[in-house]
């Protein structure tokens, strides 16, 4: 008798890191923009996408601002161990907001070409 091997053994799903996900997202957006370039409703779709990204950007900036205030509170209350984490979270949220704004700029550049 033949042994039945499990199909999942030896085959692993590829793990996508954050960088790979960002690259895939940008490729998807580029493909959609190229497809929708000559469609009448492409402008509405891209404006909605920009509005969503702008909302995420403002939300990220707000959360980063709150983390920064929390870090200042921890700084003055002498909780030294958590200060770095608060400022690190604040800087990450600001960088995330910048990424969303960069995506909006790329979409606008593609629309104006």
UniProtKB/TrEMBL annotation:
The keyword Transmembrane helix applies. Keywords: Membrane, Transmembrane, Transmembrane helix. The chain crosses the membrane at residues 43-73, 85-104. It comes from the Bacteria. This is Superfamily III holin-X. It comes from Methylacidiphilum kamchatkense Kam1. The lineage of its organism: Bacteria, Pseudomonadati, Verrucomicrobiota, Methylacidiphilae, Methylacidiphilales.
